[in-house]
Amino acid sequence: MTSTDQQPFLSVKDLKVHFSTEDGVVKAVDGLSFDLMRGKTLGIVGESGSGKSVTNLTILGLHNPDSTSVEGSIELDGQELNGAPEKTLEHLRGNKMAMIFQDALASLSPYHTIGAQIGEVYRKHKGASKKEARERAVEMLRRVGIPQPESRVDNYPHEFSGGMRQRAMIAMALVCDPELLIADEPTTALDVTVQAQIMDLLKDLQREFGTAIIFITHDLGVIADIADEVLVMYGGRCVERGTKKEVLSSPRHPYTWGLLSSMPSLDGPVDVPLNPIPGSPPSLLNPPSGCRFHPRCAFAEKVDGNRCAKESPVLEITNGRGSACHLTDEQRTEYLADLTAAKHH
């Protein structure tokens, strides 16, 4: 082990991921930095198209090098991943880092049994025999809560329910005991009860193995349940970062306010209307000038000199906390109080 408790297990610095298309260059991720410690969960939240999934596919090296430009640094346990040979990345994927995808049915092969697919990962990375791989698959299915794993190991994906398929995907991701687990909206298609079970399962496995987890979602309710720290993305950039409590209790960026205002409150009156964020996420082919959120922001006109449209705000992080916004602290306090009052009346 090269890392210590003080050093981040994963460190991403000034990551830029740009795609070449017929229409021009898409700046999918545009200068993103964050750290993740062992045994902690970072929640990355934002609307579709904000750059969440692209960031994590790039960490795993799952992008097309012919049409994708990747700049910046991605260090995993002291090892630089950006520019690393494909053979190195292949060894690390599954062994040291793994991903749970959103759609288990699309991610699992319909032509092979669940056990064969979990076992294949184990055989590839650990050089195990077929018998050892099958025993390991049964063990993993038991660990993720699949009943009668000795017989279910021979089932095909269509014979599993949605929740069981997602558990099987988690078993496959964890079969080689990776130290970094990336979960890309793994509970979106599941009902609330199964969603809660999957979240509890991830937390239990994290406690058992000390796994570092990146959890991608658009749902702040899920973030409240699982994350230690939160990174809010908009238009390919981080607009706010902090601990879960800081971001959810005292958000600093109007986009984060908008996400929270569009969620129902459990402790407020039931007849308060939700306030969706007006407009649509920006085109990353031709993003707006200045702050990328300014065309949708109700507070941009409060800032002097049309600054939001002209000048891109700098994300300054102090002790892990920061936001990229031109509002003053006094303005932020005033507007946030008004929003909070409106939500509870």
Automatic annotation (TrEMBL):
Which SUPFAM superfamilies does the entry mention? Answer: P-loop containing nucleoside triphosphate hydrolases (SSF52540)
* Organism per entry: Streptomyces fuscichromogenes
Q: Which GO terms describe its molecular function?
A: ATP binding; ATP hydrolysis activity
What are the subcellular locations of this protein? Cell membrane
What taxonomic classification does the UniProt entry list for its organism? Bacteria, Bacillati, Actinomycetota, Actinomycetes, Kitasatosporales
> Which InterPro entries does this entry report, sorted A to Z?
AAA+_ATPase, ABC_Ni/Peptide_Import, ABC_transporter-like_ATP-bd, ABC_transporter-like_CS, Oligopep_ABC_C, P-loop_NTPase
Q: Which UniProt keywords apply?
A: ATP-binding, Cell membrane, Membrane, Nucleotide-binding, Transport
Kindly give the membrane topology term recorded for this protein.
Peripheral membrane protein
What is the name attached to this protein's record?
A: Peptide ABC transporter ATP-binding protein
Q: Which GO terms describe its biological process?
A: peptide transport
Principal location listed in the UniProt entry: membrane
Q: Keyword Aminoacyl-tRNA synthetase, does the record have it?
A: no
Question: Which SMART domains is this protein grouped with?
Answer: AAA (SM00382)
Q: ABC transporter domain: from which residue to which, for each copy?
A: 12-260
Family according to the record: Belongs to the ABC transporter superfamily.
Keyword Aminoacyl-tRNA synthetase among record annotations: no
GO CC terms in record: plasma membrane
